[in-house]
Specification:
With 73 residues, the chain is an all-alpha fold. It has one domain. Helices cover 74% and strands 0% of the residues. It has helices at residues 5-35, 38-52, 59-66. The longest helix has 31 residues, at 5-35. The radius of gyration is 23 Å and the shape is elongated. 0% of the residues are buried.
């Protein structure tokens, strides 16, 4: 079987895109795992509520609370 130049072009493109497709598939599988875990979803929603209501510290806020500056870490 002989490949035409057009076939070779498509095969090169496919070979270039395969790593991207692999990453997308892995991300989709991770998303499916998260969506299937009721406990994890509940925890994520609780964390989002904590963020909205200001109950969490950012990195800089944590450093300030600990009396540190960024250069010390």
């Amino acid at each position: 079987m002989a490949f035409t130049e057009e076939d070779r072009k498509y095969l090169r493109t496919l070979a270039e895109e395969m790593p991207k497709l692999r990453v997308i598939i892995e991300e989709l599988l991770e998303t499916i795992d998260v969506l299937g875990d009721e406990g994890l979803l509940k925890s994520i929603k609780a964390s989002e509520k904590d963020v909205r209501e200001g109950r969490l510290l950012g990195f800089k806020g944590l450093l300030k609370e600990l009396g540190l500056n960024e250069k010390e870490v």
